[in-house]
Target: DUF2851 family protein
Amino acid sequence: MQEAFLHYLWQFKKFQILNLKTTHGQAVTIIKCGQHNHLAGPDFFAAQLKIDDQLWAGNVEIHIKSSDWYVHSHEKDAAYQNVILHVVWEHDTDIFRKDNSVIPTLELKKYSDKQLLDNYYQLFSKQQKWINCEPDFHSTADFLLNNWLERLYIERLEKKAVAISDLLEKLKNNWEAVLFVMLAKNFGLNINGDAFLSMAQSLDFNIIRKLQNKPEELEALFFGQAGVLDANSQEPYEQHLVKHYHYLKNKFQLNNDHVTSPQYFKLRPPNFPTIRLSQLAQLYLESDSLFSKTIAGTTLEEFYVLFQVGCSTFWESHYTFQTISKTSKKILTKSFINLLIINTIVPLKFAYSKHQGQDQVSELLDLMKKVPSENNTIVKKFNDLKPMPDSAYVSQALLQLKTQYCDLNKCLQCAIGNRLLNK
Model:
């Protein structure tokens, strides 16, 4: 038994609410259960109850056992002196206020529905399961699932919007700089995302603006600041970039002491940091007002065109400075641009619209429904349980479901878990 389940029972009155009596035989009528408190203090604020013939307004505290009141030292905490009802699963001792009056206690075990309890124990059984509802997930009605996935995806966007808002504040309300930092992180993908992020955050975006018509200097800036240049190299192009970077470092007083070095291990050559940094530089060389164009874009085709960039000439025949490879343009693929749409473009557009006091949720959902689903273990396992629509909107919602609900055993806050509890 979890306290969270007792909170659920109380909040939604999932028990026999007629003829309730305290452990001392007093009649209890619930007028208002109160406001659920997720912070420190009593579990429910501003409840309204009738105990015998007396009306009460105050707080409700919930425990598995009555004695937990003393285990948690509530008798020493003034915040609990306004508790008007102690709701417990099992009553094992009376609880007293400072004036020695007994706090009325309601033992829920006597009034709970057996079927609901059976469903609860089945959902939270200790069997080895990937998610708690694994045996029943396939039976979830499409209507319920689709509505829940939409709420989950918006919840995910809201969380990302908070992080973007924090980043905007650090960058002095410069949306262009915010876009650059987010793009840099996502150009690094999972393995080098943090390294590229540290590189981007070590730069003043005004420097990038000043170099947007200077290809070799901008590439030297990214390569040097990321720490991928070897000052002792004998390769002519690398030597050339090293000279440019030393000049820029002195001119702009750059410091990359806290920049994380990117890695090549376990990466396919198209994802080498050299290629991705060159493509990022090329993007800013070819696109003026990238932020404005990103905000103005509404279709997949527009973003495919906007981000269809390659790398500089040297990297068309190299993956590293030392080794020549077969010549290719190394243009960003649609699948890579899809990741930028999922992780950068849509979250940024969502955060920007909120900042402007606008609502673009419907348009962004429509866009995400056209982006193919991500291919990862979580999405695959959910699809094994129940086939899902092929869209990034669904895959992002499933990631939110798994990481923020299933992994945390928050079935009581999940629409699917609620359905299974109340079936």
Q: What stands out?
A: Strands lie at 20-21, 27-32, 35-36, 44-51, 54-65, 83-90, 105-107. DSSP finds 17 helices and seven strands in the chain. Residues 189 and 374 are 13 Å apart (CA to CA). The chain has a mean pLDDT of 95.
